[in-house]
């Protein structure tokens, strides 16, 4: 199935939005195209209303405790490791993780787990490689970390641009997911649905900041894991508690038969799989809204606990999705009521999880899972919005324009104004990209994060030879090369722009752009003999001590 051609007006908009790929094997049958609206579900509506009321209550509570930029950005640094780990897991249990992965398994069985494998693999690295050092080095954002030893204004601006690109790309996926879900269930126009989502997010983010966002994410993470657990249990119950029976029924019902039980349905090229895994693993380690959460805890130990609990919860979540995904295959393909006149699943494959809830649990479970999915999207959008606002108000205004001495009230006002602006942008882009697949869109920021944010952060923390010149040139090469290779890849170059053959054979170029960024950074760092380079290399000693022992590291080292 091909994506319908865009109007002349939308083509330049797509180019301005980094020309997101609109199709690939993993996106086939996604949310693209018109949604067939369903009869109103009073249970779902009631649960939606209940959640909205609860989130607004959390926002009001948080607003009375948000009095400074530190409160807004990091919840005052008073979140525990367990709470933060749950919130981080909630951050990652997005529309792409839940709706997208189940949808991919509905299409290709085992291959749908490739994204889950990549996402989960990042967390042991976060635990053992980054959590301690990042928490000890930063204050509000990960850009604080990379600017500790480098020329602050220059590196902040470059990494800030990359972070904003990542945030906006991620926002598109979540807004599309929320809009399509509400359109499907409630019969509201998609455009109105996206506007309502944005208003809700702005209501509690603008006033409650990271504290409100954290608690909403904790609540929805618990609810989502509960819902997924219940759905997986009902799937097993319907299969006589036999995994073999479930897989056998899935193979019998899927058009590709037993092929779905092995790799090779969606992804046949090992290099293609490698590009996806590299994008997911190292992209996760460079996501600004995830790294930002390491600063919401009071110390390094709690930061490591955060990564540990996040790994634990997401490992369980993705294992449960195996049952849910194969359950969707086994129980939906033989149910014509879930398919439209065109023979496609109503709402596209990304609605497979919602339809499965109807199949095994009726309206009650459908209402619960729909409300929780909406909560999931809402919370992720909130976290992204706070991260984007912090990049503008803290990293640009406070640290670059005001040289680290901002007016606190002005910074907080700017933060809230930026939050509103990001919300407006999210609405516009969510409407423009309404026909795109959420799992596919959500992978695109991973490519940029893996090509820019991660290598700069990693080298800042672990390589004494890094210089400002090397970091800036490497980051710029990573940013432009990742975007360029996405554009000339098969799905954009062929499917979107209409050329007969792609200039680059893969859609996710991080496997190539990450080494390119590292190489360029190394070459221009080792060849840098400027006065600034001498300072950069000398600063690494202080950075190393602080990253290991915290802000008072020099005193602790002197005492020993």
Could you explain the architecture of this structure?
73% of the residues lie in helices and 0% in strands. The chain contains 21 helices and no strands. It has one domain (10-559): Sodium/glucose cotransporter (Up-down Bundle). It has helices at residues 10-16, 42-63, 69-74, 81-92, 95-108, 114-137, 142-146, 152-186, 190-238, 243-253, 270-284, 288-291, 300-332, 352-401, 408-432, 438-462, 468-487, 490-496, 510-526, 531-549, 553-559. The N and C termini lie far apart (67 Å). The protein is globular. With 560 residues, the protein is mostly helical.
CATH topology category name: Sodium/glucose cotransporter
Ends: how far apart? 67 Å
Characterize the largest beta sheet: strand count, sense, and whether it forms a barrel. none
Structural class: mainly alpha
The CATH C-level name is Mainly Alpha
Element string (H = helix, E = strand): HHHHHHHHHHHHHHHHHHHHH
Uncertain parts: 1-35
Strand content: under 5%
Total individual domains: 1
CATH superfamily: Sodium/glucose cotransporter
Write down the overall geometry: globular
Per CATH, the architecture is: Up-down Bundle
Tally of contiguous helical segments? 21
Average pLDDT score: 77
